[in-house]
Amino acid sequence: MCLSLSDCQTNVTNKKPSHVSITKVKQFPGSSSFAKRSMWTIDQLRQVNGCDPNKDCPEFDLAFDNAFDQWVAGSAGEKCTFIQILHHTCQRYSSQSKPEFVNCQSKLLGDDETVDSVVFRCKVFLNRMRKEVVLNSRRQGRRLLLEGNSILHSAADSVTSAVQKASQALNERGERLSRAEEKTGEMKNSAEQFSVTAHKLAMKHKC
């Protein structure tokens, strides 16, 4: 599993005594919200394994009372930030025995001042991420709206074109009917004239 700082969160309540939990969340494609998958209290954490203290690597493991999670962070820097915050939180809020941090670089388990600076940078990073998610959602909404308007305009153009073609066809048919009626009238007049002429000839022949 690939980890970003928003996928695994350490939460501290404001009420006394403080309640600290580690929550695993997941963001699904196309959604700006996060779904909670698993949650443990800080006292259930037994071991944090950095996997290799001699190099910067993204892998680390979290062992709880009844669970074991293997993680691959998005980068070695994200892993270091998370372990620093987690170590600081455990030292401050664990009410029982502190969890064991093994195979972690010593620089990650430093003093509180360094960790507080990291926590501040982490909060800034998370706030920026949230703003980007909101901005991307708004951009996507505007894009979908524009696409919808484009589809409506295309549909309207298609309907207009179809109406114009139908109107043109009706006009052409009306013109053909008018011409046919004119020809029928001409033929009727010719027939009447022929009948009158024939009648005159017949009367002359009788005389």
From TrEMBL:
SUPFAM superfamilies: SNARE fusion complex. One of its GO terms (biological process) is exocytosis. Residues 148-207 form the V-SNARE coiled-coil homology domain. Residues 170-190 are annotated as: Disordered. GO terms for cellular component: exocyst; plasma membrane. Residues 172-186 have a biased composition (Basic and acidic residues). Keywords: Coiled coil. One of its GO terms (molecular function) is phosphatidylinositol-4,5-bisphosphate binding. InterPro entries: Sec3-PIP2_bind (IPR028258), V_SNARE_CC (IPR042855). This is Syntaxin binding protein 6 (amisyn).
